[in-house]
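Subject: sequence -> structure tokens, single chain

Hey, anyone have a minute? Need the predicted structure for the following. Not urgent.
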Amino acid sequence: MPLQVSTESPSTIAHSLKSSSSTSSFLVVYASEIDGRSWCGDCREAEPLVDAKFVDRAEVVKVVFAGQKDEWRKADNPWRQAPFSVTNLPTLIKVTGKEWERLVEEDVYDQKKLDAFVGPKRS
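Reply:
Had a minute. Here:
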């Protein structure tokens, strides 16, 4: 089952990630879609691998879209701001306690790097 897109505000998502009771929480930031297809080639490459990685896992995973090209490129885009600090798409953010780590662009669809970043499935 594909991951579900969050419609929560950036501030609500940040609060949720910071206060999650799970060991790690994740946020996937993709470029928005045009006619059902992301304008970002790296996002299109990453999506099936990210979906497969998180199927049947217990971690909190939220997916958001950073906007169309013109929205994404604006300095005030909320996903570019702290605590997200996204610089490139796609970005996978892992929050563990107070630590925010990022896997960015082609590293998101590098299976070995994705596996190492997400870690083993918890029982």
